[in-house]
Design brief:
The complex is a heterotrimer of chains A (388), B (303) and C (284).
Chain A lengths: L7 E5 L1 H11 L4 E4 L6 H10 L7 E4 L3 H13 L4 E5 L1 H6 L1 H9 L5 E6 L13 H4 L7 E4 L3 H18 L3 E6 L8 E5 L2 H7 L18 E2 L5 H33 L7 E5 L5 E6 L1 H5 L10 E6 L1 E3 L3 H7 L5 E6 L9 H7 L8 E6 L9 H12 L10 E2 L5
Parallel strand pairs in A: 2-3, 2-4, 4-5, 5-7, 6-7, 11-12, 11-14, 14-15, 15-16
Antiparallel strand pairs in A: 1-8, 6-13, 10-12
Helix pairs in contact in A: 1-2, 1-7, 3-5, 7-9
Chain B lengths: L2 H7 L16 H16 L4 E7 L2 H5 L5 E2 L4 E5 L4 H14 L5 E8 H7 L1 H9 L5 E6 L36 H6 L5 E5 L4 H16 L4 E6 L3 H5 L5 H10 L5 E5 L2 E6 L7 H5 L10 H23 L1
Parallel strand pairs in B: 1-3, 1-4, 4-5, 5-7, 6-7
Antiparallel strand pairs in B: 6-8, 8-9
Helix pairs in contact in B: 2-8, 4-6
Chain C lengths: L1 E8 L4 H14 L3 E6 L9 E9 L12 E6 L7 H5 L1 E10 L11 E5 L1 H7 L12 H12 L4 H12 L3 H13 L2 E3 L27 E2 L1 E2 L11 E5 L8 H5 L5 E4 L2 E4 L9 H5 L6 E5 L3
Parallel strand pairs in C: 1-4, 4-5, 5-6
Antiparallel strand pairs in C: 1-3, 2-3, 6-7, 10-13, 11-12
The chains are: A alpha/beta (388), B alpha/beta (303), C alpha/beta (284).
Chain lengths: 388, 303, 284
């Protein structure tokens, strides 16, 4: 049992980094249910909370109950955390819809894993991408450092916007990969994340009897949903502000919506998400006519920013790590629906499912495929063939 | 009139008039005495009611109307026990010691879809009161069979001719098997039954840890009887041994109301349209099961 | 296309009536839509069902907002809110024996449906006459020429073992429907008083309910109501078992708050004193 929180420059996995971030953020109530490859986060937290009477740690019997537990604890006024993967996130699906519509400021880590059937515990983004319409802010990370930093930012974002945030990190590629990162001091984190003060009118206060989330008339129900949509739209600016404050405060660059690498004037662009977006950076070394765009904030979707970044691009490749059954992949759908007038050829590639590797060679193949194509809109995604 | 009754008559009702339960709703009477009993036992303690999907989602009030004098946290069907645990945890963390977190869950939520959550909260011995508000079917959706629907009963998913086979889950014994500090069965059919009911609510308020109250409540449209008969049916259920009133206090079982002259179960069944299709042989079979359950309970009491 | 609203209370067979009528229109060669209110039905609480019929296919996919025909299945009079949904020149059909004051620019017809149901032994589990099918007989006489046979077929197909008495009730309703004409002394209803309540504040951000339910007068649901007689000893037992919290003890006497009493009758059953409480029909 390790009870001390490491500090400074360390070598650790994204799972361990997530546990550190949760402790640094002074989380009060933690819900736990095991699932590979997330489990190490809640195991690490279980050690860290021993003897802490200012933290409640509950072993629930399912992810559905686990999300219910943190939603209720948050509604009753405390900062919460939980983590899950794959089937667990899917099992909690109705709670995801409910958390955003009920304006619960949760922070949850999803360690991305492929979904059954057939069984796989290896990474892809099918689990969280298929939750994109549940009203959560979704941040996709590409390093252990970014997982830690994004969790710290997520509490600021969630508690200001009164919306839940899902911090996504691919299983094994991040969760079980040890790498170098910086862990900030507790004082610095305390100065960055203020104490939780949810709006009084929203807070469950036993001495002020009210009914929460009761059935409304259709017009009121409609208004509540529209409010969620507007809050998500407004969160774009907030995410930008928090990232910029983070960069100043911790003296470490924090990506807000998009990370750009390569030539901003290039006529070829590759848009990717998660670790594929990181691997793609290798390509710019020998291709000075390439811009790599890594999407960090997937919801709210940075449509305007992307449209501006891609405005001069002629050849556009969008790479998904989740299937687009019956349509394009999720990222492909979003990006190719932008109004990009200069694009001559565009394609949506789907690779890396169930832990299949996506290497620079795969991405070069994809770029070549797009450049030789004349298709400017996506009618069907291209499933990356084996061996490229 | 005895003083204890006068005190109850003068209590403020925490289910407010103007609520939208059906006329003659048994659970509407029951919840008044649960909330009233908890408040009388611990006047300083603030009640938080946790309500999974059920008739009570609507009875609580159409937004922005509030039909309760206590806080009400509405939850999806399956997660009430976990959410009550979360609220209690938050209360501890915020230093709010005088809170009573009460789940008011229907039989569908408790016996079926939320059962694993109830069982897990009991196994963690969460400091909450879980009330099973049992009207023996999914009534809010229009009378469908649940795990607490009795054998022989008509529902829309067990129509006459294919009525419910198998036995209603014995939730009180199932929950007592978790080793929780307090389990009781309650029903309101007469003044003596009210005394028993309120004593159990008071006991639940005194005990710490997971407390489970299984309350039978008549549903006129779902059981198919005239609205005026709600309390009378509760009385017949108890006096026929159909629904024995008992408790298990820290492992000690006790039958708390022992009818002097038990009625045949047919007296209870014949009052309700949901059993009107039963042949005499089927009623005999139900009687056998009622007798077996009573004997088993009596055996627990003496062991 | 014509649109109809059927209004009544939970438990009176309003939704079933709309389905039978839809089937009747369909058998008579019309295209139809029939749907219940999009809410949970509560026994005794106001409920409505909607019907559209046309000679061509119907493409409207939204709730009926105002109607050409208002059918009141209950024997109690229609609410001002229900009447306000009737288009000028429309028709109201009432389950009623006596004249209803003419209150607007619409026609009124009536049928003694409750009496017809009583005669045929068509009763609810509470023993109340179920006038829904007799009302349909009247509806068909007003709306579908030569439609009675179709109604009889629809009743037979929908009501199984209970069809016999209901077919007879439908025939009686068809025969005993009368239209009434305006008379001196009928006063038109002010349109302004029918306006829907609009929330004064802006769009709420959180669905948190704070308005006390005591503004919601559920006493309007009741068909019967308890009366306290001089024999009452004010023992308070009725108050212990009232699901509504509508009975209280004040100055040594029991008081019933009819604003909330839904008329379930439990108080009469639990009362230990002979003749202290009696149920009576709520006066119209």
């Amino acid at each position: 049992m390790i009870q001390t929180l490491p500090r400074g420059r360390v070598v650790m996995t994204a799972n361990e980094a997530a546990a550190c971030a949760v402790m640094l953020a002074r989380v009060q109530a933690i819900g736990c249910y095991p699932i590979t490859p997330q489990t190490l986060i809640v195991e690490r937290l279980a050690d860290l909370v021993v003897g802490r009477d200012d933290i409640e740690y509950a072993n629930l019997e399912s992810e559905h109950s686990m999300f219910g537990y943190v939603i209720a604890a948050a509604r009753a006024g405390v900062r919460t955390f939980t983590a899950t993967s794959s089937q667990g996130l899917l099992y909690a699906h109705e709670q995801l819809h409910r958390a955003s519509r009920e304006r619960v400021p949760l922070v949850v880590v999803n360690v991305n894993r492929a979904v059954f059937a057939p069984w796989s515990i290896e990474p892809d983004l099918s689990d969280s991408m298929s939750q994109r319409d549940t009203g959560w802010i979704q941040l996709y990370c590409s390093s252990a450092q970014e997982v830690l930093d994004s969790i710290l930012c997520a509490y600021r974002i969630a508690e200001t916007a009164m919306l839940p945030v899902l911090v996504c990190a691919e299983g094994f590629l991040l969760s079980h990969t040890s790498e170098v990162l910086e862990i900030p001091d507790q004082d610095a984190v305390d100065a960055f994340i203020p104490a939780l003060h949810p709006p009084q009118e929203w807070l469950l206060d036993p001495s002020n009897p009210r009914v929460f989330s009761a059935l409304p008339e259709p017009k009121d129900y409609f208004a509540f949903q529209r409010d969620v949509a507007e809050a998500l739209d407004d969160a774009r600016g907030l995410i930008e502000t928090v990232a910029s404050e983070f960069t100043t405060h911790f003296q470490r660059e924090k990506v807000a919506a998009l990370e750009l690498v390569g030539n901003p004037e290039a006529d070829t662009a590759l848009v990717a998400i998660g670790t594929i977006g990181d691997s793609a950076q290798e390509l710019v070394a020998d291709d000075d006519n390439l811009l790599v765009v890594r999407v960090h904030t997937y919801r709210p979707f940075p449509a305007a920013e992307l449209a501006s970044v891609l405005a001069g691009v002629s050849y556009l490749s969008v790479v998904d790590r989740a299937p687009g059954f019956g349509s394009l992949g999720p990222l492909g759908n979003d990006v190719l629906s932008l109004d990009l007038k200069r694009v001559k050829a565009a394609a949506n590639f789907i690779g890396g499912l169930g832990g299949a590797d996506v290497t620079p060679a795969t991405l070069r193949w994809a770029l070549q495929h797009t450049r030789s194509s004349t298709q400017s809109g996506g009618v069907a995604p291209v499933y990356v063939p084996e061996g490229v | 009139m005895p003083a204890w009754l006068d005190e109850i008559v003068s209590e403020d009702t925490l289910l407010l008039p103007g609520h939208t339960a059906c006329a003659g709703c048994g659970p509407a009477i029951n919840i008044r005495h649960v909330l009233g009993g908890l408040t009388a036992a611990a006047p300083e303690s603030k009640i938080v009611l946790v309500v999974p999907a059920s008739c009570w989602t609507i009875i609580a009030g159409v937004f922005p109307v509030n039909a309760f004098g206590v806080s009400v946290h509405l939850t999806p069907f399956a997660s009430a026990a976990a959410e009550a645990s979360g609220i209690k945890a938050a209360m501890r963390l915020r230093g709010i010691e005088d809170s009573t977190v009460v789940v008011w869950g229907g039989d569908g939520s408790t016996a079926d879809i939320g059962f694993s959550g109830v069982s897990a909260a009991a196994e963690r011995n969460e400091d909450i009161i879980y009330v099973l508000n049992d009207n023996e079917a999914y009534m809010n959706t229009g009378v469908q069979k649940s795990g607490a629907t009795p054998e022989g009963a008509w529902t829309t998913t067990t129509p006459a001719g294919a009525t419910r086979t198998g036995q209603k889950k014995d939730l009180a014994r199932i929950m007592a098997a978790h080793g929780i500090p307090y389990v009781a069965t309650l029903a309101l059919g007469s003044v003596p039954m009210l005394r028993d009911f309120r004593a159990k609510v008071t006991r639940a308020a005194e005990v710490e840890g997971f407390r489970f109250l299984h309350i039978l409540g008549g549903c006129p449209p779902g059981w198919r009887y005239p609205t005026a008969q709600t309390t009378e049916l509760a009385r017949l259920a108890v006096e026929s041994h159909y629904f024995p009133l008992c408790e298990c206090d820290h492992g000690e079982w006790r039958i708390t109301v022992r009818p002097k002259h038990p009625l045949p179960v047919g007296d209870f069944l014949e009052t309700q349209g949901r059993f009107s299709h039963l042949a005499p042989g089927e009623i005999d079979s139900i009687q056998t099961h009622v007798d077996e359950r009573w004997d088993a309970l009596a055996g627990l009491e003496t062991s | 296309m014509k649109e109809m609203l059927l209004v009544g209370r939970g438990g009176e067979g309003v939704v079933l009536a709309s389905q039978i009528l839809a089937e009747t229109f369909a058998r008579a060669g019309f295209f139809v839509q029939s749907f219940p209110e999009f809410t949970a039905e509560r026994r005794g609480a106001p409920i409505s069902a909607s019907l559209r019929w046309d000679e061509s296919p119907i493409h409207r996919r939204y709730k009926v907002r105002d109607c050409d025909v208002l059918v009141v299945v209950s024997s109690s009079p229609p609410s001002p809110q229900a009447l306000a949904k009737l288009r000028p020149g429309g028709l109201v059909l009432l389950n009623r024996e006596t004249r209803f004051p003419h209150t607007g620019p619409f026609d009124i017809a009536r049928v003694p449906a409750a009496r017809i149901a009583q005669r045929h032994g068509i009763l609810s589990s509470e023993g109340r006459p179920m006038g829904n099918v007799a009302v349909l007989g009247a509806c068909v006489s007003l709306l579908i020429p030569d439609g009675l046979a179709f109604l009889e077929q629809a009743v037979a197909s929908r009501m199984g073992a209970k069809a016999g008495a209901n077919v007879a009730a439908a025939r009686d309703g068809h025969e005993r429907c009368t239209k009434q004409h305006a008379a001196a002394g009928d006063t038109p209803v002010e349109a302004a008083s029918l306006a829907q309540v609009v929330r004064s504040s802006g769009t709420p951000v959180f669905a948190v309910s704070t308005t006390d339910s005591r503004g919601n007068h559920t006493g309007t649901w009741s068909l019967d109501r308890p009366l306290i007689a001089v024999e009452c000893t004010a023992c308070g037992v009725c108050a212990l078992f009232c699901p509504e919290g509508a009975m209280t003890k004040s100055d040594g006497a029991m008081v019933i708050d009819y604003l909330y009493c839904k008329g379930c009758g439990i108080c009469e059953v639990v009362c230990p004193v002979r003749n202290a409480i009696a149920m009576e029909e709520v006066p119209a």
